[in-house]
Amino acid sequence: MEKEIKTPILGNKIKELRAGDRVLISGTIYTARDAAHKRLVNLIEKGENLPFNIKNNIIYYVGPTPAKPGNVIGSAGPTTSYRMDSYTPQLLDIGLKGMIGKGARSKEVIESIKKNGAIYFAAIGGAAALISKCIKKSEVIAYEDLGSEAIRKLEVEKFPAVVVVDCYGKDLYDIGKQKYLESVKYINRGGGK
């Protein structure tokens, strides 16, 4: 069963979510990939304002393809998240509460997620066309010169994702590895005959 969440995402809702939970996200989320993250962190380091209010919001790591006529957005599948790892702790420290991407995160990012009471979701890679149907509105709000990597404000409805790292630091990828290793040990001991 999926849990429905609305943005902005607040701490009390984040505390209810656990690694492995399936969610449907509705509301406003923002897009940014590594080039935009670098610019955001440069603004933070200069003490300047960001082009959007990051507090309690979610960033989706995506560089969508151009929209076909009559569509809001093109294919919008997740980008590999580790590309943003060097920038993520600084964004979490100033109030970012959620990220959507694909793949594992570094230990430093997981510690920052725990420290800041945030959460990391995974969107399903390979489902870019399906994900784009959940995006009801798309507007470039910063760094238009970056093309598909510009920062966009998206309005989403029932955007499907899975909690990968919860605010307690539980990591679905580690949980999956442990279960796999336990099953291998069981089989190697002659179990399952």
TrEMBL record:
Signal peptide: none annotated. Its EC number is 4.2.1.2. Keywords: Lyase. It comes from the Bacteria. Pfam families: Fumerase_C (PF05683). InterPro entries: Fe-S_hydro-lyase_TtdB-typ_cat (IPR004647), Fe-S_hydroAse_TtdB_cat_sf (IPR036660). GO terms for molecular function: fumarate hydratase activity. Residues 6-174 form the Fe-S hydro-lyase tartrate dehydratase beta-type catalytic domain. NCBIfam families: PRK06842.1, ttdB_fumA_fumB. Belongs to the class-I fumarase family. This is Fumarate hydratase class I, aerobic.
